[in-house]
Structure formats: C-alpha cells, structure tokens
C-alpha cells in the first residue's frame, strides 16, 4: 500500500481539533461543567434538606442528580477526552451532554426553591449555553456526518424524532388550551411544575426534535449530526425521568408511577435511535459517504 493511500484513508481518530482559541474555551468550560455537575449532584443526593420544594419537585430533582452523577458526568468527561484525541463521534456525545445540561439545569434554576447550591446550578446552566454556542459552529459537520449511519435507518429515526416532538408538543398545547377554556390542569402535579414543563418543552424541546427529525429524514449532514445528538440527549433524559419517577414513587408522591410503560417505550426508542446512528461504520463506507457528501452538497448517502 502506498503512503499516500494510508494518509488519505478516513479514520475515526484524527488530529486533535482543539487548536483554536474558541474551541479551547469550549473544552475549558466543559471541563468546569463536569466538576460543577458532580459537586452539585453529590450535594443534592447526600445533603438532607437541600431541596425545600414539595415532594413532587424534591424527589424529581434528587433523581435527576443521580442520573447526572452516574451517567452524564462520565459521558461528558469521556467525550471530552476522546474529542481531544480527534474522535468525531465523541463530539456528538459532547454536544448531546451539553444539551442535556442546558435543559436539565433550567429546571433547577427556574423551577426549584432557593438552596445552598443555587449558584452552582446557575453556573452550570450559563456555562453549558456558552460552551455549546462556541462549540457548535466549529464542529466538523461533514467529518462527523460521514461516521453516522444514513440511508433508510436515518429516515426511520428522523420520523421517530418528528413523531415524538409533535406528540409531546401537541399534548402540552392541548392541555394549555384546555386550561384556558376550563381552568383544568393535570391532577397531582403542582401547577408551577406544569407551567415550567410546558414552557421549556414547547419553546425548546419539541421544536428541536421536529427540526432534527426533518433534517435527519432528508439525510443532510447537519441533520445526521443533529439527529444523533438529539437521540442521545433524549436517551439520557428519559433515564432522568425514569429515576425521577422512581424517587417520587418511593416517597409515596400521589399520582406517580415508577417506570411507566410510555416512559420505557420512549427510552428504548431513543437508545435504539442512538445506537443505530452512532454504530461504527466500515472504513470503506465512511470514504464513500464523504465522497458522496462532497459531491452533492449537504446530502449524505
């Protein structure tokens, strides 16, 4: 094999991308986020009386702390380590965990009562927003997309994301309209909790799911990257919701059922979507995808 052929062969790990000053800032911010999330989660789990909210919110926050500490912190730390080494797929995990951090800590900042780690929660939310804002424009979208499975699998995942986004957004919109007409809300869930869930999901989550699903269905490079990140984010947050429900059920919170069927179905759906898109592709397939993408604009095979 000629030396030129070796140099031209696409690989999963390439030169470390963290050479520019803005990208170094994203690494530093993300490393700080890892430390702050671990600290806030440990305090939330083991300091009695930290959360002075009602039982529904208190146990949801504690369940979220466990998932963040046991799942999200290791994933983000591993993604940072592998991204420094040049892994393209690790950058997808990096983006997904920053998205998780933004969405998750919006609840701690805007929904929880004052507590001893409130400043940490604000810092995590703020740094996650800025880290993602710095990172996203500097991603090697074409290089990452070449390592994500396209074809029929991507279309099915795209349809799944659109379906979940429209279903979730449609349900919340229906409940909001019903409240405007009848004053009726969901039973057993605090009104302020429903208010925040509806606001965040309709303003951020549902539109992101739908947009990612449409772009993924069209198999654009941006859609492949965004779809994979959103799928992984969805899987992580469904674990968060599952553990929150388990904590609430253990505390005998009325109207809460641990591990409901719909939650399990959504979790499995997001896990399968993530696995399908991020499964390792053969080197030859990556090369064909990169060549096809270069010759057809943003559309990937």
Properties at a glance:
single chain, 301 residues, mainly alpha
Model description:
The chain is mainly alpha-helical and 301 residues long. Helices cover 76% and strands 0% of the residues. It has helices spanning 3-8, 21-46, 55-84, 88-111, 118-135, 141-145, 151-182, 191-217, 221-250, 261-278, 283-295. The chain is globular and about 50 Å long. Residues 1-11, 13-18 and 293-297 have low confidence and may be disordered.
Structural class: mainly alpha
Number of helices: 11
Largest sheet: none
Radius of gyration computed on alpha carbons:
20 Å
Compute the number of strand runs.
0
Mean pLDDT: 88
What is the global morphology?
globular
**Alpha-carbon distance between the two ends:** 27 Å
What is the ordering of alpha helices and beta strands?
A: HHHHHHHHHHH
Helix content: over 70%
Strand content: under 5%
Low-pLDDT runs: 1-11, 13-18, 293-297
